[in-house]
């Protein structure tokens, strides 16, 4: 039984996998030779949302039983192919909800109040030279639309409710028992809100969901916050509309081609750019590591995982 690591993982996770399970890493080169030698022995993979497992790789691992994903998002793994082959896929839900929701609120405040831009203003010596920083806008008591009222979306709604915001949301279906207003039509919701917060899962079903039409409906007074996946938004349209002043601003933790960020955004003070750090705290990444190892142990001991993806 061999555990295979796909992609670069948190160093302490790699150390534990090597120590406890003698895990081996999938090399970047000469993969076919490597798989010819080790492929049959591999029963479990540990990977992360940045890398994932393709159907092609699964086909070369005839005894693979589980793909254990470090992270809640698993859009880089071909889950349909895994299901067809009877391979379990697990993720790390719940433990990162609070940190990712905090990041969304941080972006929400920053993009509306201009804190990062104001920080640059102070550091550049512009305060004594130019006088007061230009006025920004109020963040509390705004109308916020959340795309994806799952665990993270609900935690964002909870936080922004405390800021006096009115929350509406768009999902495929209404969430039973939710106190927030359901909007079946995303374009209509975007038209009605001041801020659109994207918290939907990535993958094919949500690819390009925040289209040019949705962004145009959000309009020149509207702000966009994305802590989900870059693929959910038509990034080209987003950049164009921001450059043309057809959106008030955007707070982005995720991008379509990470770690590449469209350079056209670098000069815009109404855009806040973060390097996909939503879950990136010592506490949360530690909890994700523990849950990843618990899912792997569960599979190796009982053939089941604790957090199977739907
Ligand atoms: C991680 C994430 O940065 O959980 C997710 O889906 O996007 C983040 O928590 C990522 O999974 C680590 O590679």
From TrEMBL:
Record's keyword terms, sorted: NAD, Oxidoreductase
Protein's UniProt keywords contain Oxidoreductase: yes
UniProt keyword Transmembrane helix, yes or no: no
Gene3D superfamilies xrefs: NAD(P)-binding Rossmann-like Domain
Xref: InterPro entries: D-isomer_2-hydroxyacid_DH (IPR050223), D-isomer_2_OHA_DH_cat_dom (IPR006139), D-isomer_DH_CS1 (IPR029752), D-isomer_DH_NAD-bd (IPR006140), NAD(P)-bd_dom_sf (IPR036291)
Domain D-isomer specific 2-hydroxyacid dehydrogenase catalytic: 10-309
Matching CDD domains: HPPR
Domain D-isomer specific 2-hydroxyacid dehydrogenase NAD-binding positions: 106-278
PANTHER family noted in UniProt: 2-HYDROXYACID DEHYDROGENASE YGL185C-RELATED, 2-HYDROXYACID DEHYDROGENASE-RELATED
Homology family: Belongs to the D-isomer specific 2-hydroxyacid dehydrogenase family.
Protein name, as recorded: 2-hydroxyacid dehydrogenase
Originating organism: Kineosporia mesophila
